[in-house]
Amino acid sequence: MDSLKNLLQQKNCKDVVVLTGAGISAESGIKTFRDSNGLWEDHAIEDIASPEGFYKDPEMVHRFYNLRRAQLQDVYPNPAHTALSDLEKIVDNFTLITQNVDDLHERGGSQNVLHMHGELKKIFCLKTGKVDYFEGDVMSEEFSFVRPDIVWFGEAIKYSTEIQKAFENCDLYLCIGTSNNVYPAAGFVQAAKMKNALCIELNLEATALSHQYDLNFYGPATEIVTQFVDLFR
Ligand code: NAD
């Protein structure tokens, strides 16, 4: 990490974009897809993360997200989440994009989080088209007219304008704890490269797109993200 500190100083990186995935929350106790062999808490992805799955069985889908929402009460931000909230305060421009639907970045102190795949604590009313903050369980009498405000397969991501803007002056792109299997997030490294940003992957292990990054650091997020952010202090 010493030579990296020199490189960061030479490049004088000030405009930072970070993408996080399920891996950053793994050590807080929230399972990733990979932990569960491509299943999400024992469910096939298409059953609980597609509009077709929802219309086929809204009750099962709501019960699944009720459990995910309830789980948030038993998990806490880990040092990787808090390190990123520190980094937000240190650099000039900072954008945190997350694929995660949990609220651990916010609870770790991050101010501005772009939840590109939605949030467990938001609900979408199919009658009014309104999105509301939501805690607790969706009750059976509501199953047919509300849905979790989660981006499912085949649906457009949220905050695409803000995300595009974030890359305009990006000089450092960090990709943390994501398998890089899901587009468009997996393509962000290309957007960063077009701006000549330094692109760094931080993950437990190599991913399918590791070769596209300038540097890769492997290890648990609580260790490597905190070590990385310490380089800026
Ligand atoms: P993924 O499950 O496909 O991949 C997880 C990645 O995290 C892997 O590359 C793995 O090597 C890495 N990882 C695991 N433990 C780690 C650790 N301790 N430190 C660092 N890296 C670690 O997850 P994804 O790429 O985020 O894509 C999955 C999709 O599933 C997202 O769209 C997301 O919305 C959804 N999801 C969200 C959550 C959550 O909100 N916490 C959890 C599961 C799935």
Q: Would you write up a description of this structure?
A:
The chain is α/β, with parallel strands linked by helices. It folds into two domains: 2-30 and 77-117 and 157-230, TPP-binding domain (Rossmann fold), CATH 3.40.50.1220; 31-74 and 118-156, 2-Layer Sandwich (SIR2/SIRT2 'Small Domain'). The protein is built from ten helices and nine strands. The protein has helices spanning 2-11, 23-26, 45-48, 51-56, 58-71, 79-90, 104-107, 160-166, 188-194, 221-230, and strands spanning 15-20, 93-98, 113-115, 118-125, 131-133, 146-150, 172-176, 198-203, 215-218. The strands form two sheets. A six-stranded parallel sheet has the order 3-2-1-7-8-9, sandwiched between helices. A three-stranded antiparallel sheet has the order 5-4-6, covered by helices on one side. Helix 6 (79-90) packs parallel to helix 10. The longest helix has 14 residues, at 58-71. The chain is elongated and about 60 Å long. The two termini are 13 Å apart. The model has no long low-confidence stretch (mean pLDDT 95). Residues 21-23, 25-27, 30, 32-34, 40, 99-102, 117, 177-179, 181-182, 203-205, 207, 220-221 line the site of nicotinamide-adenine-dinucleotide (NAD).
